[in-house]
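S.,

Sequence below, as promised.
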Amino acid sequence: MKKRGKKYAELVKQVDKATLYEPADAIDLAKKTAKAKFDETIEVHIRTGCDGRHAEQQIRGAVVLPHGTGKTVRVLVFAKGVKLDEAQAAGADFVGGEELIPKIQNDGWLDFDVVVATPDMMGVVGRLGRVLGPKGLMPNPKAGTVTMDVTKAINDIKAGKIEYRLDKSNIIHVPIGKASFTNEQLADNFQSLMDAILKARPSALKGQFIKSCVMASTMGPGIRINTASLAR
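The prediction came back faster than expected:
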């Protein structure tokens, strides 16, 4: 555990560890405790009751945040023929096919944040599984990143579409915007995210779905949220 400085200790004092905050109050606090010299990202960490080792309890999907994430997202599209031109016209940052494999595999080129592929390119992209998989960059139909409609995929991603999935500890980590966003923008984004995740509850899950939810800025302390208030 790295030692935190005095500044962090001061921020921690503003958060009552025993309190479960309403989302609006948590957003307010997350903004107030974002004191770094850069525009911090506000993140949400949701601990679920799922057991990701069972396929039927896996959660993976995507949601377009109404106000985006505040981050410029670089999109790589694997396609061929007319779909290459379509991807370029839709604003993809990089487009290509088989020729990109050695660049990623051998040269370690990873200057992109999201990978989109047309279904007919998945055989090619599959060869990058070992590189893209661990980084969460592998295209996936559930996340809308394996599709023939590359224009929609690129537009959604550029508009603020984020993916959510369980990590090894069955926690979902997602950004909901920047500290410079207004409270209303962050509240809208948070509600859209929670609506999507509540809908994604696996039918095989028995017992509590959302065990805890914590909001924090990049460098700020965790703020626990009252999960009872999340379901509308």
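The radius of gyration is 19 Å.

Coffee later?
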